[in-house]
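Bit of a strange request maybe. I'm writing a small parser for structure token strings and I need a real example to test against, not something I typed by hand. Could someone generate the tokens for this chain?
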Amino acid sequence: MKMYYIAVYDIASPGRLRRALKIFRKYMHWIQNSAFEGELNEGQYSKLKEEIGKIIKKKEDSLIFFRAENKKYINKTLIGIEKNEASMVF
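Reply from user aminoacidic:
Good idea to test on real output. This should exercise your parser:
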């Protein structure tokens, strides 16, 4: 069963940030600086956490995953410019 995820992060090192972006882009859709969204099954989510866990330094970086059973339970309100057209959120 797929779940809907939003990931937000602060990564201190530009090198780790570039590597993290490559990983996130394999699994999710970029919506704004330091934010991705997407529907993932349990296996995909586990692989994403495993891959990103090898890059993140827990004493320097921060990563938060928000999860909902279905994207229809997420309401999006945009104020200002949209960085990337978010096709996943309605």
